[in-house]
Amino acid sequence: MDSYVHGYQEREAERLGDQANTLSGLLHHDTRYPAGSKVLEAGCGVGAQTIILARNSPGASITSVDISPDSLGKARAAVESEGIANVTFRLANIFNLPFANESFDHVFLCFVLEHLRELERALQELRRVLKSGGSITVITDRPISTQRAWRRGRPSSASSSSRSAREGIR
Ligand SMILES: C[S@@+](CC[C@H](N)C(=O)[O-])C[C@H]1O[C@@H](n2cnc3c(N)ncnc32)[C@H](O)[C@@H]1O
């Protein structure tokens, strides 16, 4: 993200927390990762979704990354204050992830891809670190053509879909 549209102010941290809690049932009701699985949460922000993810999948090992050190610090503090122990945080850029190929069983992104200029490049990098047969869950606040970019590996045009803001793509 060249400049994150919502910025990194305190008010934004509050907004992300309110958003995560308000939409928790809708966004997370069917996201449960098996014990022992490795999950990458890309663009974790202040950890609002991380807490819900980690609580819902206590046996999974979650690695949450963000490009903002400040947000990561807040996320780490939030997770610690909740007594959650299955999350590791790492400063990382989605476009250049510090992980070997096929490191994760699952990838989860919430309200991130719609802010990136190079969607296809981001998906290629996420795909690199995802094991064959793994899953990627993408939640966006507007329709974007993730499926086309994922499958064909080339830039997508504007989405023709106006359906759900949640897409599970494989
Ligand atoms: C709208 S926030 C969403 C945060 C969190 N997923 C949530 O739903 O509460 C978008 C986050 O993506 C992060 N981000 C943007 N570009 C990124 C990149 N290239 N690599 C890693 N994180 C990025 C931002 O720093 C920000 O924390």
Keyword list:
6-stranded mixed sheet, 35% helix, 170 residues, globular, disordered C terminus, binds S-adenosylmethionine, alpha/beta
**Main sheet strand line-up:** 3-2-1-4-5-6
CATH class: Alpha Beta
Q: Number of helical segments?
A: 5
Which class do the helix and strand fractions yield?
Answer: alpha/beta
Overall radius of gyration: 15 Å
Summarize the structure.
This protein is of the alpha/beta class and 170 residues long. Helices cover 35% and strands 22% of the residues.
Detailed description of the structure:
- The protein is α/β, with parallel strands linked by helices.
- Helix 4 links the parallel strand 4 and strand 5.
- The chain has one domain: 3-Layer(aba) Sandwich (Rossmann fold).
- Strands 3-2-1-4-5-6 form a 6-stranded mixed sheet, with helices on both faces.
- Helix 1 runs parallel beside helix 2.
- It contains 5 helices and 6 strands, in the order H-E-H-E-H-E-E-H-E-H-E.
- The protein is globular, with a radius of gyration of 15 Å.
- S-adenosylmethionine binds next to helix 1, helix 2 and strand 2.
